[in-house]
Amino acid sequence: MVRCTRGKRRRDYCAPSFCPPHRFAKKAWFLPDLLQTSSRTTKTFTRNLFINDSHSNSGATELLAEKLIQRIASLERVVVAFSGGVDSSVVAAAAHRALPTNSVTVTAVSPSVASWQRETATRIAAEIGIEHQWIETDEVDLVDYRRNDAQRCFHCKKTLYGSIDVAVKSIQSTMADATILSGTNADDLGDYRPGLKAGSDAGVQTPLADLAIGKADVRLLAAYFGLSNDDLPASPCLSSRIAYGVEVTPKRLERIDKSESWLRDRGFDDVRVRLLKKDETEIARVEVPLPELNRLTELRSAMTVQFVALGFDEVVIDPAGLRSGNLNEALVAEIGIKRS
């Protein structure tokens, strides 16, 4: 099985015996070669080959897309809280199809947002063709947010949705009564996410979760809508990298952003640099998917020099690999929250 570069899209795969034109391709990806590449490449290949190209799934995905579009069309005017991630991108794409002249996306500019995510948001909004606005949020100035306790996400989202409401009304009077939509999906409901309460308090609607659309279906919908970020790994805000109880500051957020950017420049697309503190020692705990641990270990010396120069005292590699939301584990156990 090879990837045929004559295909118009990167999801066009073929078998040599059934696709003579592939011999004219300048480059073909063979499965054994893919297994030696990064885990993201392998996962993308496998998912696209066995899921996205499945005729049995295409009809179900189309039906799900129609349900999502109809759900949003019933709202008349909408504003999408847009990060450029796959969840909010799918909501934005559906909103633009449902309400092409009555939908807009808004992205927050804040020290807690990684620099590469801003670039992604700009690109994806352009792909969709939807209006895109930027707003500055000041959650990092709030004492309750900087304290970084179990309610940090609540204070962040409360600030975000309040800022969106004010900004949209000032930008377009016709959007004054628009409904704010978030990219919360059904799988998010099983984690500890106090930001969901902030959204509920602000009247934010969650069409993906309402339709029981989980992450796997979100990625299928992104591919269906033709979005280039359908395989983009999840990447929560930079503040989520800082251990609970350690103060969130712009300086620490910048250090994390630069550290992760250094790793992304070296091919680690799915990465977390956690900031832990022991007494006065600030530790960078680096997490990547298990298949990429060996490659990261080879960079240990250079990475340590770079991260220490950025302000970390120690640098360690987590042998357990990347576990999204793992800083919540101790918190969930401590306060007795059930996770599905």
UniProtKB/TrEMBL annotation:
GO terms for molecular function: asparagine synthase (glutamine-hydrolyzing) activity; sulfurtransferase activity. Gene3D superfamilies: HUPs. Residues 62-167 form the Asparagine synthetase domain. Pfam families: Asn_synthase (PF00733). GO terms for biological process: asparagine biosynthetic process. This is tRNA-specific 2-thiouridylase MnmA. It comes from Rubripirellula obstinata.
